[in-house]
Please model this.
Amino acid sequence: MTALIVIAVLILAVVLMYNSLIAKKNQVDNIFAGVDAVLKKRYNLIPNLVSSVQQYMQHEKSILEKVTELRAEAMKPGISDEQKIALDREITSALGNIMVAVENYPELKANENIMHLQRTLTEIEAQIAAARRAYNQAVTDYNNAIEMIPTNILANMMHYTRKQVFEIPEAERKNVNVKELFKQS
Amino acid sequence: MKSVSELTDFYYTELYDSLAELEARRKQVLKRILVLFGIIAAVLMFVLRYAGGGQSTGNLAMWVGIGAVTIGGFGYHYLIRGYRSGFKEKIIRPLIGAIDKELAYAPEAVVPQTLFEFSGLFDRRIDRYSGNDYVQGSIDGVPIRFSDVKAQHRSRDSKGKEQWSTVFQGLFIVADFNKHFKGRTLVLPDLAEKLFGSFIGGMLQSKNFSKDQLVRMDDPAFEKAFVVYGTDQIEARYILTHTMMQRLLKLKAETNSKVYTSFYGEKIMIAIEYNRDLFEPAVFRSLLSIDQAMAYIGTLRSSIGIVEELKLNEKLWSKA
Model:
């Protein structure tokens, strides 16, 4: 009788652990779908941005070409989540460079279309930042589960491996320092 | 918007005449109240002394006690009535006007109960809802309204006796939020983590079936003070940026109270638990005391200042 109870409890524990691992993995996938959706929003903005600025930006042609290339690569079907995360990092920095470069062209800064694009981009960046943080939290929960006792044993059998988190740029973590902003301008 | 020190100046200079007049009235009212309480106490002693004896004394004492408290309570409210409304008209109304001319004030109105329930901040059914000191207007183009609120819940004990418990008493503030969102995000004081520590508390939080998903935030100080539930993990973080979390922490520190925040229906709704009726005139203390003045000014300034404090006026360009 005792043996039966022990076995029942063990089975129950395994089922619970298994379900919680599945739930964590699905949570990561779910949130990645959200990340993907906002990233796509940004990809869709890139051609418009490039075509609006390229006639002015003769010196920055290489950045513009690079960002177009990166976009094409990110839009390819069947690339892995890890690749998407890596591409996102590059696109973020390339777009940042373009936005800094815009500051050097007074006629671009005053252009209504560019202003609109800039504001749209800022808004999308805020959404991407939120999505990245949500994804990182889900991945951390997942990674913790597959490395901690006792769920790690089961995770090993299920061939679950660690997932990569987004690196959050230092600038996003800091609170905005108004003084610094004034200094720059 | 005027600062707290400017408002303190205003209180002691512009409002001085009204204050002096009300202060004289307060002393009068206080005298009457003391007389009333004296009479009640004398009657109470007389009744208990001469009508006593026998088994029914305990019962009688209870009824006499209840009667005394009821009469005392009604008498008190009756006596301060004129003084109270004079105070609201002559002190609170000008103070609100001094903070911002655009604000309207209704001493006896309250934020609608539907809005309070809409926030989803409190789970228990609300059977009695009251409040006063309603303020409405817009600050920097952001519509805002708030009032004192008292929400109560009725339950029955094992003997079927009716019992009232307070769900919330304090300030309830509603303002338009500066970002678009579809779902609901609740930021509640973290009781579980405080009581049981982060490990067990964290487990309890995530097993909370009545609420939406638990959203764990990436700011340790914030996570320690609050617990976040939301319908959408990404949206909750879109609303609660690192700066927003800092501002909510600051609000909690400044008010030194429990702060409940709900983001729902394009609005931010904040309930600050003071556990007392705010903006009521002092009866047993002088209106001229600095503590008393700071209590009125500080609370008003910080509730109206929410727009500035949380930067709700920094509108998204798309939400014009």
